[in-house]
Design brief:
Strand content: 5-15%
Number of helices: 9
Structural class: alpha/beta
CATH class of one domain: Alpha Beta
CATH architecture of one domain: 3-Layer(aba) Sandwich
Helix content: 55-70%
Radius of gyration: 21 Å
Strand order of the largest sheet: 5-4-1-6-7
Largest sheet: 5 strands, parallel
CATH topology of one domain: Rossmann fold
Low-confidence stretches: 99-106
Number of strands: 7
Shape: elongated
Oligomer: single chain
Length: 266
């Protein structure tokens, strides 16, 4: 049993070191968010806890602190695993599945909502391009569907993300009359809030399809449903951003937790 615990200890340390390297690398690429910052702190703390536990447990106050810390970390891990299951379930709630499980769903007209992401000098970043390409694929297969591109202008962007997204869809052959722009949102909640206003104002279908990375569509759909919309998901491939996946995944867990807390308090 003791040998098994030692092996498990070094496996955890190795995973934490790998994650820390991934977090630091994404930060070095100017991708700094709660996921990689807090993730780095937690990983370094876990490594320190495991390496120093045998020495520090001899000091009673430190032993109590470290045991309490270990308990909090285990609870946090279990909670994160549960939230991750929700994130995966959101990815599986596709338009095709909606047809099978409801009388309406994707068999009715749809509004495709492409969530914004960074644009570089008016051109979609790799992540944003993946989202737009997925939307293009669906819009070509479903000519009755319309699309809302949503995203405001960041401090390092020359125009609102929605403008860059609209331009890209036009170059891919999507008719301008099928595209609506939402140019003032700064986060996922506002993406769906302002998109819902466009849907109401323009009389667009309230059955919406959220297009984003698979770990993000659960939160997007959840915010859509808060606005009275019926949401399914169309996950974009994350091939281009696999190296940054841990950062975005951890960030998403914190963002979902923040939403849960906010909902409880309001």
């Amino acid at each position: 049993m003791k040998k098994l615990l030692i092996v498990l200890k070094f496996i955890v340390i190795a995973v934490c070191i790998l994650l820390t390297c991934t977090f630091l690398f994404t930060m070095s690429c100017n991708i700094v968010n709660a996921g990689n910052v807090i993730g780095t702190i937690i990983c370094l703390f876990v490594i320190s806890l495991l390496l120093l536990y045998e020495k520090l447990k001899k000091i009673k106050p430190m032993r109590i602190f470290m045991n309490a810390s270990a308990a909090v970390l285990v609870i946090g891990f279990v909670y994160s695993a549960i939230v991750s299951l929700f994130m995966v379930s959101g990815m599986l709630n596709t338009p095709d599945k909606a047809v099978q499980s409801s009388t309406g769903g994707a068999s009715e007209q749809q509004t495709v909502i492409v969530l914004g992401c960074k644009a570089n000098n008016g051109y979609p970043s790799l992540m944003l391009k993946a989202r737009l390409d997925k939307a293009v694929e669906y819009l070509r297969e479903n000519p009755q569907a319309v699309c809302i591109v949503t995203g405001g202008q960041g401090g390092d962007e020359i125009e609102p993300e929605a403008v860059s997204m609209h331009r890209y869809l036009i170059t891919q052959g999507i008719d301008d009359g099928r595209i609506y722009k939402e140019e003032k949102s700064c986060n996922t909640e506002e993406n769906l809030l302002y998109s819902a206003e466009i849907i109401e104002k323009c009389g667009l279908p309230k059955n919406v399809i959220i297009v984003s990375e698979f770990y993000h569509v659960y939160r997007g759909a959840r915010n859509a449903e808060k606005q009275g919309l019926s949401a399914t998901a169309l996950p974009a491939p994350s091939t281009y951003t696999l190296w940054a996946m841990p950062s975005y995944w951890v960030r998403e867990i914190f963002a979902i937790t923040r939403d849960y807390v906010f909902d409880l308090l309001t």
